Amino acid sequence: MKYTSVLIGLLFVGLGRSGGWTESRLCGAEIVVPVTWWCAGDDEEAKRNVRWRSEKIRSFFTPVVDRGRVFVGGVVRDREQAAMVSLAGEDGRLLWEADHLLFAAPALYAQSGCSKPTVDGDRAFYQTQRGELIAVDLDGLADGNDGPNRDEEAVGPTGADIVWKMDFGERFKIFMEDDVTAGDPVASPVVIDDLVIAVTGHGKPRGTADYDPKPPSLVAVDKRTGQVAWTSNAPTHVTYRQWASPVAATVAGRRVVLFPAGDGVLYAFEPRQGTLLWKVDFNEPSDVAERRRSDADENSLRGFFWTAPTVIGETAYGGLRCEPGPDRFKQWPLLAIDLKEAAAGRRVVRWKFTADDYYGTMCAVAVDGEMAYVLDSTGWLRALDRQTGRELGRVDELPICGADLTSPIIIGRHLYVGTDDGSLFVFGLGSDFPCLGCFGLEGRVCGTPVRDEGTLYVTTTRAVWALRLPPELKDDKPDK
Ligand SMILES: [Ca+2]
Ligand SMILES: [Ca+2]
User: Fold this and answer.
1) Is residue 399 very low, low, confident or very high in pLDDT (cuts 50, 70, 90)?
2) Which of 5, 71, 292, 463 has the fewest CB atoms inside 10 Å of its own CB, making it the most exposed?
3) Separation of 61 CA from ligand 1 center, angstroms?
4) Does residue 90 have a pLDDT over 90?
């Protein structure tokens, strides 16, 4: 099922506003939270909790805060245009806006727009839903027109300064569906030294075996000029498409860029030259064999990365899922894979989590010193022992209703989880992870929140929010 059709099928009931203790009833779910910080509306309570909100852009992705500015990729003008915007951290006013064409698609499908940007120095790099890689000047045109690209489409004080851009479809003939693809996630590039490394999104028509192995899936570009440094056309076959972001890591003393690919294999490249160093398959061989015995078609044999695995030290935590649509093989395990062993050519699974009621995840795993927190595709939030993968605690039935984009994230000493009904839940850490409260927003909360001093920035499919951190959430530990 596409994200978009998930969205259509939702019944938004929302949180009941009834003072102190609050019940949320959505899709049969009930959760009791000790306090709700109401943020929607114009009343005194919302004014107390909200520094500002901007309806300039709607976003599925996480914002980035840099030197007092908030950068958000999404869609604008009732989803008619993809855009990257820069908002002032103090009041949310628009500093600049870069507009990009969307695939010609029904407006409802046009949700993903532009990716989460990656900020490096005075530049941001991001990708569009149409398969473009864009470099933009954080200061906009206010400090002049920078870079080889001088053909700015927007002029005036809020025009964006595009430094360079590359169209993967035009340049490499990658395959991208059009109207259906419009609702898919968009990968974010990673910057390593002078190179921007990006996943092109190359895929194949849904439900077919028709994959062209020639176009590259991973491209490294000089961050100053936009010139191609190297490309890789690994993998040679994909399950569907590729939208998990690359990850910079150090494994066995060597810097690598990890590419979570469309065949469920994690590829490690030397970042300067693009030499493939090693790879490790996240598909369990026994699972693939079992699916083959069950007469699975070729597109159901192997899962692919819906999101990048979480790399902590030399362990990668993550799981795979199959092609969107009815999935006969729902029990995709969550794995902790030893990357140091992988670099030595050995596939060592440190632990594998499965359960009769665990159907896999499409989200990133949040990991701290003790626990790995995973939000599964039925809306259950579980705390697993980071060393063994044993389940130590869970919260049943968060009002997710098939949420497939929101990842849990640890900020300071708290775990944040956004849901489809406009709630942002906050939990304490540990195996019992008690619910501490909930922000009541509007729109789906799909990107993870970002904290900057006493402000929490959150994007939803309705607005960008700058929230005042309640005193009970201010902690004394630095952010992780
Ligand atoms: Ca400029
Ligand atoms: Ca320019």
Assistant:
1) low
2) 292
3) 25
4) yes
Please give the distance, rounded to the nearest whole angstrom, from the Cα atom of residue 349 to the centre of ligand 2. Answer: 47
User: What's the CATH number for 1-52+358-480?
Assistant: 2.40.128.630
**Which segments of 126-258 does DSSP mark as H helices, in order?**
168-172
Domain locations in the chain as residue ranges = 1-52+358-480
C-alpha separations of 440 from 247, 363, 376, 408, 461 in Å: 32, 22, 22, 17, 14
Ligand nearest to the CA of 152: 2
Ligand that comes closest to the CA of residue 162: 2
pLDDT tens, residue by residue, 342-351: 999 999 999 9
The pTM (predicted TM-score) of the whole model is 0.91
pLDDT band at 20 (very low <50, low <70, confident <90, very high): very low
**161 C-alpha to ligand 1 centroid (Å):** 5
Work out the burial of residue 151: count CB atoms within 10 Å of its CB; fewer than 13 is exposed, 13-18 middle, 19 or more buried: exposed
Q: Which residue has the higher pLDDT, 335 or 107?
A: 335
Whole-number Å distance, alpha carbon 67 to ligand 2 midpoint, is 21
As a whole number of angstroms, the distance between CA 477 and CA 480 comes to 9
Q: What is the CA radius of gyration of the chain?
A: 21
Distance 111 CA to ligand 2 centre (A): 27
- C-alpha of residue 164 to centroid of ligand 2, in Å: 7
